[in-house]
From TrEMBL:
Its EC number is 2.4.1.267. It is found in: Endoplasmic reticulum membrane. It comes from Anopheles melas. The keyword 4Fe-4S does not apply. One of its GO terms (cellular component) is endoplasmic reticulum membrane. Belongs to the ALG6/ALG8 glucosyltransferase family. The chain crosses the membrane at residues 35-52, 148-166, 276-294, 341-362, 371-388, 394-416. It is a multi-pass membrane protein. Keywords: Endoplasmic reticulum, Glycosyltransferase, Membrane, Transferase, Transmembrane, Transmembrane helix. This is dolichyl-P-Glc:Man9GlcNAc2-PP-dolichol alpha-1,3-glucosyltransferase. Pathway: Protein modification; protein glycosylation. Gene3D superfamilies: Phosphatidylinositol 3-kinase Catalytic Subunit, Chain A, domain 1. It comes from the Eukaryota. One of its GO terms (molecular function) is dolichyl pyrophosphate Man9GlcNAc2 alpha-1,3-glucosyltransferase activity.
């Protein structure tokens, strides 16, 4: 058995070969001392996600459509009750105006599995056709929240931890334990992703987790696996197009580089075309398997594409922090035809992202480091200039920035903070920015409550109007509550009340 250490081997290679970077591929030896921080980080991440899950969600008690929570639930209802051919089709049982399914097939399959889980092992009323709309019982909320936490445990948290750890080991110069645990902790506890998936309610953790695994696969030179994983991510959420160009250019470069210097031009070209063909067949086969139920006719496939890319929705949604929302303050963009704005957005997006992609393709020595930077730049270009951008789309920029934490800790930390703040209007609308306290003083029977509510909506309003706002929010519940007391504060008053 060798007595050499990892540090000895690194120093020897550095001295003898004048190497600027030597990375050990030896897996870490896991013991209690090294395992404890990993367990602590994961536990903290799950605790925060579970805590956020206790609060309100998108569209809670807001008829007639109830928000994204109801959209996800309704897709479960549609997929378990209707044939696959009708999932994306306008029928008497599937009204596209009421949260029509508009995510790619893999997301639909996920909704189907969750719907089966709800119907067979929980409560059939969760997905009863037409009758389950707007369901908001505590039991259903717990079920839905647990489906997100399950994906966090099985996919997103392992993927983001593995990716951040691998990037740091392969690319980072700072190898201190403090830097390692800091980057891992920040990656797991990024508040933007937690507040959207576990608060607002979505399953971004699925597509983001698959994309992260695709990045790691390329980092480890498993190109076909990386291509398949990214195709899965793209087929879960079409917004993964934000990351598509760097993957395309990186894989295209891979096909035509890395030759033996002694090989002829013809041999290089033949090998490159062969690699490209294998890669293309792999991508097409992945799409074929996922889209197979809708490939029986051009009409069915066209309907799916139309639902995934709805041009009629407009250039942006709500108060998204991108260029078009800023321009709209001066020039009302909704006065222009959507098709015109779609072309303008396409042109501006290409101008913003193509330089990074071409640099990745044409630079003398393409590296995974360049690929990570290109992912961040391209995603940001899409967020700032592309058509129909959501506030939540900033998560697609935050993902590669999170992977850059080991390389650019200060810049990445600042960006992740700004990304979370950019979603403030959405989070405020969902009730995820307002601290409140509810105390059941009736031994659990729900007959007597004392509440403390802090809201900016109380600004400038006398006490009576504040109480009326609270009473209006609980109009139905107060009909059966015997005793209800409340204290209301503005954020400034709350800061003074709870301060030192």
């Amino acid at each position: 058995m060798s007595g050499y250490t990892e540090e000895y081997i690194r120093q020897k290679l550095t001295e003898k070969l004048e190497a600027t970077h030597v990375v050990s591929l030896k897996p870490p030896e896991m013991d209690i001392r090294t395992a404890l921080p990993w367990v602590t980080i994961v536990a903290a991440g799950l605790f925060l996600r579970a805590a956020i899950s206790l609060h309100s969600y998108s569209g809670q008690n807001q008829p007639p459509k109830y928000g994204d929570y109801e959209a996800q639930r309704h897709w479960q209802e549609v997929t378990v009750n209707l044939p696959v051919s009708d999932w994306y089709r306008n029928t008497t049982d599937n009204d596209p105006l009421y949260w029509g399914l508009d995510y790619p097939p893999l997301s639909a399959y996920h909704s189907y599995l969750v719907g089966l889980w709800a119907r067979r092992w929980h409560n059939e009323s969760y997905v009863a056709l037409h009758e389950s709309r707007g369901i908001s019982t505590d039991q259903h909320k717990q079920f839905m929240r647990n489906t997100v936490l399950l994906l966090d445990v099985l996919l997103y948290l392992p993927a983001i931890l593995y990716a951040t750890y691998t990037v740091r080991k392969r690319l980072a110069n700072d190898r201190s334990e403090v830097a390692e645990w800091t980057s891992l902790t920040l990656a797991v506890l990024f508040p933007g992703q937690i507040l959207i998936d576990n608060g607002h309610f979505q399953y971004n953790n699925a597509s983001l987790g698959l994309c992260v695994l695709a990045v790691v696969a390329l980092l480890e030179r498993r190109t076909l696996a990386g291509a398949v994983l990214f195709c899965l991510a793209l087929n879960y959420k079409q917004m993964e197009l934000y990351h598509a160009l760097p993957f395309f250019f990186y894989l295209l470069r891979y096909c035509f580089t890395g030759w033996d210097k002694s090989s002829t031009v013809l041999e290089r070209l033949t090998t490159g075309v062969s690699r490209l063909a294998v890669l293309g067949v792999t991508v097409l086969a992945t799409f074929l398997v996922l889209w197979l139920p809708w490939l029986s006719s051009l009409e069915a496939a066209g309907q799916l594409v139309h639902r995934i890319f709805p041009v009629a929705r407009g250039v942006f949604e709500d108060k998204v922090s991108n260029v078009w929302c800023m321009v709209n303050v001066l020039v009302k963009l909704r006065n222009f035809p959507n098709t015109t704005m779609a072309l303008v957005c396409l042109l501006c997006t290409l101008l913003a992202v193509l330089p990074s992609g071409l640099h990745l393709l044409l630079q003398k020595a393409s590296t995974i480091r360049s690929f990570l930077y290109s992912l961040a730049v391209t995603a940001l270009g899409f967020f700032l200039f592309s058509f129909h951008v959501h506030e939540k789309s900033i998560l697609l920029v935050a993902l590669p920035v999170t992977l850059l934490l080991p390389l650019e800790p200060l810049a990445a930390c600042w960006f992740l903070q700004i990304a979370t703040f950019s979603m403030f209007p959405l989070l405020h609308k969902d009730g995820l920015t307002v601290p409140f306290e509810v105390v059941d003083e009736s031994d659990g029977c729900g007959g007597k409550f004392r509440v403390v509510v802090v809201s900016s909506q109380f600004q400038g309003k006398p006490l009576l109007q504040r109480h009326r706002l609270v009473n209006a929010a609980l109009e139905e519940e107060l009909k059966t509550i015997h005793a209800f007391s409340q204290k209301t504060y503005t954020p400034e008053q709350w800061a003074g009340e709870s301060g030192p």
